[in-house]
Structure formats: C-alpha cells, structure tokens
C-alpha cells in the first residue's frame, strides 16, 4: 500500500510540475481536462504496476517501473489520434508529466524500499529465506542475506550432499533434502526460496523446477546466478518444437548500437590524433635525436581472443606514469582493435587465466580507459575481473 500510494503521489506531483511549466499554475478552474488525465494516469499506473507484479516487495525496484509510467501518456496519444480534433492536453504538459513521473516513480520506489526495510528490521518483521544448495556460493549468499540491514533471515539450507543437522553457518543448519522443500518451507513459514544453480544434483534441480512454478506455493522462488553469469550473458526463451530452450547471448552491444558506438569512437579518436599531432611530431624528432625507439608495444588479447599490439610511447620519451604514454593506442582504436572505454587490456601472459574466469570479457574490445582506471595501480587480478564484469 505504501508503494501504491507513492506511485499516485508521484504522478500527481509530476502533473503539477508540468502544469506549472506549461500553464503557469499548479491547478485552476479551467484545467478540467488536465485533472481528468492526471486521475487517469494514476489509475493506469496502478493497474499496470499491479499487472506486472511490481507491488511485491521484492520487485519494487524493477526496470518495469519505466514501462508502467509510460502507459498513461501512450494511452493519451492513442486516444487523441482516434478521437480526432484538437489534442486532449498540451503536448509539452504530456511530455513533462511523463519524464517527471518516471523520475519520481523511481525515486519514490527506492525510498519506499529503504523505509520498509528499516521498519522491518526495527519491528523484527524480516523475510524468512530458505537456501537450496549449500555450495560455497550458497554459503556466501547466506552470509549476505543474514546482515541486519537486508531485512531478511536465513532459516536454513537444503542440500543433496550434506547430512541434515550439519552446521553451515553459525546457528544455521541443513534442514533436509531438496525434495522435502514443500514440507520444510511450510513448517518454517518461509517467504522466499533461493535456488543456487549448479549446487544440486540433476534430479533435485528437476524437482525444484517443477515445484517452483506451482501457483499454490506460499513462498516466492528465486534463482541465484553466479556473478559472472549475471553480468557476462543475457538470455531469451525460445522453443524447439514444444521444448522451451534458453538462448544465451553475450551481454555486449550488437546491431545498430555497436555501429553507433564505433562511429563515435572513430570520430573522437581521429579528432584527438589531429589535436595531438604536434606532440607526435615533437616526440618523433626527439626519438631520432636520441637514437631511441619511437613506439613500444605490448601484446594483449582482443575480441574473440585475437592478439594485437597495444601501442604506446617508449618510456624514454614519456614518463611511465604519464597519461600521454598510451596516446598511440588511438591507432588501435582507429583500427577497430580497441574502444575508448572498455575492459582493461589483458596481456597474453594472463590470457589463459582470464578465459577461465571471465569468458564474457573477450566479447568486447579492450578500452583505453574504464572503471579500472580509478584503481589501476592497486588492482589484483580478481579485482580487475570484478571491475570489468561490472562494466560489461
């Protein structure tokens, strides 16, 4: 109810802001159409949010918030077209209401989530979570969910390989076999069941899949993917005959987006090369006078595991800690081997290790800069993996 009320307030407030911008007043006697459309927007937003299932507490911060905030303006546009005549409301008012409404819906929902979590913790009304799969990833998830600010408590684990009663975390034990899920979940008044992928036998995973889709469940079933699975791939469901299958796609730019990004980067790289051309000429003459090499390179891994020479100035010409050291890598960008922004370039000496832990990274061109740039000097290999996956 708190979130639903927040949605209504967000739409009314967005409408008032739009009215002030377009009409010079919050509301007035000659604004009947605007009042009617505002009430309609509130109703459409509530119904669509309820229909999409984002009034469940675990789904408040859903990406569908932007979708439900767009139904009202879209309905108005379609209605104006079908009815003909002059527009029902001002186009500027409609656009402003839509933009402000989406922004306020997001702000209100995140605020509501934090408030309710704090109230739950204060009143000791927490989500009771049962984890299926006592693998290292499941145990790590249990530690995280058990933190006070999460508003949840782990009641126990179900596992194929550990005996019931085995203590997995302090005070948290294995309660039984995954096939006993229904009985244990009902007995423990469980609110959520979290399935750990890869932690169960094939038979148990099949039982979990069948049980998870039952509408009679009094709990919500969730699947916890690994961090790399979550960030390095996306999936869509399709059918082969009557058999549903997931198609796994690399989580990277494709189609028009990659052409757009490549065009922008090529333009920027070419412009920067022209701007810094006097520096190039000066350093080239300096290298000739000193009898030193002009360019140096390091062999790194590119898209699809293809190696290329990552160009840079020789350290005799430019200090190794200077941002200008990698300026020649603009040539790599112009060749299509690198991006201006992307994952950190992987030396071939680390290529074998990187393929084992981050296969999604090699689907993207390495970048001259990225999130890793902020911590480049003190990042270990595992930290670089995390930062690169966050970018992907």
Automatic annotation (TrEMBL):
One Pfam family per UniProt = CoA_binding_3
List membrane-spanning regions.
Answer: 34-53, 65-84, 90-110, 266-285
State the InterPro entries in the record. Answer: Bact_transf
The Bacterial sugar transferase domain extends over 324-392
Extract the coiled-coil ranges from the record.
none
Per the record's keyword annotation, is Transmembrane included, yes or no? yes
Signal peptide per UniProt: none
Annotated GO molecular function terms are: phosphotransferase activity, for other substituted phosphate groups
Q: What is the protein's given name?
A: Bacterial sugar transferase domain-containing protein
The species this protein belongs to is marine metagenome
Keywords, sorted A to Z: Membrane, Transmembrane, Transmembrane helix
């Amino acid at each position: 109810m708190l979130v639903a009320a927040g949605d209504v307030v967000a739409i009314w407030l967005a409408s008032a802001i739009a009215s002030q911008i377009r009409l010079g007043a919050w509301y007035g006697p000659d604004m009947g159409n605007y009042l009617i459309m505002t009430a309609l927007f509130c109703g459409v937003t509530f119904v669509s949010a309820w229909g999409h299932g984002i009034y469940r507490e675990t789904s408040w911060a859903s990406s569908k918030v932007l979708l439900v905030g767009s139904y009202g303006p879209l309905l108005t546009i379609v209605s104006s077209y079908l009815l003909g005549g002059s527009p029902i409301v001002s186009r500027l008012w409609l656009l402003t209401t839509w933009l402000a409404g989406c922004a306020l819906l997001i702000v209100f929902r995140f605020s509501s989530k934090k408030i309710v979590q704090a109230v739950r913790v204060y009143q000791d009304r927490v989500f009771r979570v049962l984890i299926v799969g006592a693998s290292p990833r499941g145990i790590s998830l249990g530690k995280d969910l058990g933190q006070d600010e999460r508003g949840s408590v782990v009641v126990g684990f179900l596992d194929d390989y550990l005996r019931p009663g085995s203590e997995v975390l302090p005070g948290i034990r294995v309660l039984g076999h995954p096939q006993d899920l229904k009985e244990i979940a009902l007995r423990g008044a469980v609110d959520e069941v979290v399935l750990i992928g890869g932690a169960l036998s094939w038979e148990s995973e099949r039982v979990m899949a069948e049980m998870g889709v039952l509408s009679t469940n009094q709990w919500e079933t969730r699947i916890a993917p690994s961090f790399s699975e979550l960030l390095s791939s996306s999936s869509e469901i399709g059918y082969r005959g009557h058999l549903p299958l997931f198609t796994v796609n690399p989580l990277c730019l494709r189609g028009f987006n990659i052409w757009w990004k490549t065009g922008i980067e090529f333009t920027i790289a070419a412009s920067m090369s022209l701007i810094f051309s006097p520096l190039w000429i000066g350093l080239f003459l300096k290298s000739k006078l000193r009898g030193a090499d002009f360019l140096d390179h390091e062999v790194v891994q590119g898209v699809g595991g293809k190696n290329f020479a990552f160009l840079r100035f020789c350290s005799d010409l430019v200090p190794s800690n200077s941002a200008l050291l990698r300026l020649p890598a603009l040539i790599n960008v112009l060749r299509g081997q690198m991006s201006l922004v992307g994952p950190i370039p992987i030396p071939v000496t680390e290529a074998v290790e990187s393929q084992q832990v981050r296969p999604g990274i090699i689907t993207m061109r390495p970048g001259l800069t990225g999130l890793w740039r902020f911590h480049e000097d003190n990042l270990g290999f595992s930290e670089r993996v995390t930062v690169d996956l966050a970018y992907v």
